[in-house]
Design a protein that fits this description.
Layout lengths: L2 H21 L14 E5 L7 H4 L7 E5 L8 H12 L5 E7 L3 H7 L7 H10 L7 H16 L1 H8 L4 E7 L6 E3 L1
Parallel strand pairs: 1-2, 1-3, 3-4
Antiparallel strand pairs: 4-5
Helix pairs in contact: 4-5
Length: 177
């Protein structure tokens, strides 16, 4: 292992010890299951930590992260469906953010057939207004209704709400759309 990777791994191990020290009394209550009140599909960007943004504790948010907060991959859709069917979350949030690298890459032109290119092409489909970040969030909300019968059924039964939001990296504020 190279020195940089070893240093990072050592830091992660120290961080884990600090986590255990802080939360060791709370951890046993989560062993039997989870009951989050919200599922959040957000970008994989390391600057967008939903638990911190919303001041939530362990087990309060079911988080799915993928570059560009896109909902087209079966593992993303399956995770969201799981949150609806098995965890009975009443709210699903699509959380975009300012200065999104995936949206910026999409603005640079169409992608290729690579995995990254597929994400770029998924995001590019929503372009046409001045706010591509907002349009991507709104498009993902609409696509969930097309791509997931479970989410559509829950919406129709009034068991689920789907909302969009943008996290502002500059000041930390979340704006609901």
């Amino acid at each position: 292992m190279n020195e940089d990777a070893k240093t990072v791994m050592d830091n992660l191990s120290q961080g884990n010890l600090a986590f255990i020290s802080k939360f060791s009394q709370e951890l046993p209550k989560h062993v039997s299951g989870q009951s989050p009140k919200v599922a959040i599909l957000t970008c994989a960007d390391s600057r967008v930590p939903p638990e911190l943004i919303f001041n939530a504790g362990i087990g309060e948010i079911f988080v799915i992260r993928v570059a560009g907060n896109v909902a087209f991959d079966p593992s993303v859709l399956g995770s969201l469906d799981y949150a609806v069917v098995n965890l009975h979350v009443p709210l699903l949030v699509i959380l975009g953010h300012t200065n999104c690298g995936a949206v910026n890459a999409s603005e640079g032109g169409p992608g290729d057939d690579s995995s990254i290119g597929q994400i770029v092409n998924e995001i590019r489909c929503c372009f046409g207004t001045p706010d591509n970040i907002k349009q991507n969030v709104l498009r993902q909300i609409e696509l969930l209704k097309e791509r997931s019968q479970i989410i559509t059924d829950a919406l129709e039964k009034g068991e689920l709400e789907v909302k969009g939001a943008i996290y502002n990296l500059e000041d930390g504020k979340v704006n609901w759309i």
